UniProtKB/TrEMBL annotation:
InterPro entries: UVSSA (IPR018610), UVSSA_N_a-solenoid_rpt (IPR049408). This is Uncharacterized protein. One of its GO terms (biological process) is response to UV. One of its GO terms (molecular function) is RNA polymerase II complex binding. The lineage of its organism: Eukaryota, Haptista, Haptophyta, Prymnesiophyceae, Isochrysidales. Coiled coil: none annotated. GO terms for cellular component: chromosome. Pfam families: UVSSA_N.
Length: 111
């Protein structure tokens, strides 16, 4: 009987798992095991760094302030270390920023 190999997780599913673990890990240390695992994953490739963006972005909208803070800390760490991550963050911020500054039909600028 041949042993079945478990399918390899996709970078996206692994990123989701690592982010979920890291934002919920409220270690007393500055850098805990969950952070180390996330950093190790990110160092493997730009594809891995980019896979971390969506799960982190979603956590920034979490109702729990501590989770939002942890997500922001992780975004900051990746921002410092990865040009690819900076580009994807700026790509998402620019349209939101423009909408906030310029307004839209439902929220026009004052006259």
């Amino acid at each position: 009987a041949s042993a079945r190999m478990a399918p390899q997780p996709t970078p996206e599913s692994e990123a989701e798992r690592l982010v979920r673990r890291a934002v919920r890990a409220l270690e007393d240390e500055d850098i805990g095991p969950a952070d180390i695992a996330l950093r190790r994953f990110a160092k493997q490739s730009n594809e891995h760094v980019l896979a971390l963006f969506d799960p982190l972005w979603l956590q920034l909208a979490n109702q729990h302030a501590q989770i939002r803070l942890r997500a922001l800390q992780l975004v900051s760490q990746l921002w410092d270390r990865s040009a690819a991550f900076r580009h994807v963050v700026l790509g998402h911020l620019a349209p939101d920023y423009l909408q906030l500054v310029i307004g839209d039909e439902s929220h026009p600028l004052p006259k």
